[in-house]
Amino acid sequence: MQGTVIKNTGSWYVVRLDDGQLFQCKVKGNFRLKGIRSTNPVAVGDNVRIVPTEANAGQVGMITEILDRRNYIIRRASNLSKQSHILAANVDICLLVVTVNYPATSTTFIDRFLASAEAYRVPVVLVFNKVDLYNEAELALVSELEALYAKIGYRSIRTSATTGEGIDELKEIITGQISLLAGNSGVGKSSLVNAVSPETAARIGEISRIHNKGMHTTTYSEMFELMPGSYLVDTPGVKGFGTYDMEIEEIADYFLEIFECSKGCRFGNCTHIHEPGCAVLAAVESGDIALSRYSSYLSMIEEKKEGKYRA
Ligand code: GDP
Ligand code: ZN
Questions:
Q1: SS3 for 139-156, per residue?
Q2: C-alpha 131 to ligand 1 mean position (Å)
Q3: Which of 125, 136, 235, 238 has its CA 20 to 30 A from that of 76?
Q4: What integer is the mean pLDDT of 278-288?
Q5: Segment 73-104, tens digit of pLDDT
Q6: What average pLDDT does this structure show over 209-235?
Q7: Alpha-carbon distance 246 to 258, whole Å?
Q8: Which ligand 1 atom sits nearest the alpha carbon of residue 187?
Q9: What pLDDT, on the 0 to 100 scale, is given for residue 80?
């Protein structure tokens, strides 16, 4: 039998079969995934094969196989640990909720997030929320950012969880998908879930209340059905997810327009910081690459270097 893992409590998994039946499962033996030392071999979103273990005791089974993952989001289990924790697998779309005010989301935050999402190979849609609150200048900033990111290839929508603006478009985007909602605290993630599905919002609220009492906070994750066939991954730690462990040389690859432009650099190993004949520096100069993007790129390189010196 085959299904999707929709919940991981740390000690067992809930697998939803394609016909809707739910099975409580353990993992058979010890999975070792290629190249990943993970605290959890199976993650929410995984497609798995199971065998039932108790004929009449209801839906209990054993996960025997994980099918190939389209992608997965992983973070280190802790700063000191070599082990990783897989937050979710097979995520179709990531909605990055952004507000230009109340509170303001920085372009550095957006760009780091986008770079990580590229590394994970998860498509992102930018969701500019709280548009009901913005004055003309703030709306102009939204337009500017929409244009900036559209040029790179990222889609944006405008929403208001309060007035309902853009919620239909949001629903359209997540229909039939496994999606993940990210963004700084206070930008309106919970409010958007509530606007899409009040029942789901209530369930998530209930579960996080239980967790705040100190249960399973690091290992627990769950996928909620927002609408039939549409799932939202909710797991501690996933909202910022900008901790993809990339090498310094890789960072440019995940800034799509920098990567594209770098093909014109004189040197193949150009870091786009000081080299002569750097096409990226020329593009920043001419305004073809946004200065905010280039700054974000530099800040990620700097941070990585500092980390290296410390280690
Ligand atoms: P989260 O931390 O990202 O989950 O943010 P919340 O959903 O808790 O929202 C934070 C605050 O912003 C709450 O007081 C919400 O009522 C408010 N809020 C969320 N979305 C909107 C919106 O679109 N318009 C307005 N005016 N307020 C919003
Ligand atoms: Zn260069």
A1: HHHHHHHHHHHHHHCCEE
A2: 11
A3: 125
A4: 98
A5: 887 666 666 677 788 999 999 999 999 999 99
A6: 78
A7: 16
A8: 3
A9: 62
Task: Tell me the ligand closest to 258's alpha carbon.
Answer: 2
Query: What separation in Å is there between the alpha carbon of 54 and the centre of ligand 1?
Result: 46
Which pair of structure tokens corresponds to residue 10? Answer: 């740390």
Q: What is the dihedral of CA 85, 89, 121, 31, to 10 degrees?
A: 60
* 289 pLDDT more than 60: yes
Please, what is the average pLDDT of the chain? Answer: 89
Number of the ligand closest to the Cα of 277: 2
Q: Which ligand is nearest to the CA of 158?
A: 1
CB 119 within 8 A of CB 72: no
Give the phi and the psi of residue 107 in degrees, each rounded to 5.
-65, -30
Ligand 1: which of 130, 139, 157, 191 to mutate, most ligand atoms within 8 Å of CB? 191
Give the residue whose CA is nearest to atom 19 of ligand 1.
188
Q: What is the pLDDT of residues 118-158, one digit of tens each?
A: 999 999 999 999 999 999 999 999 999 999 999 999 999 99
Write the pLDDT tens digit of every residue in 166-183: 999 999 999 999 999 999
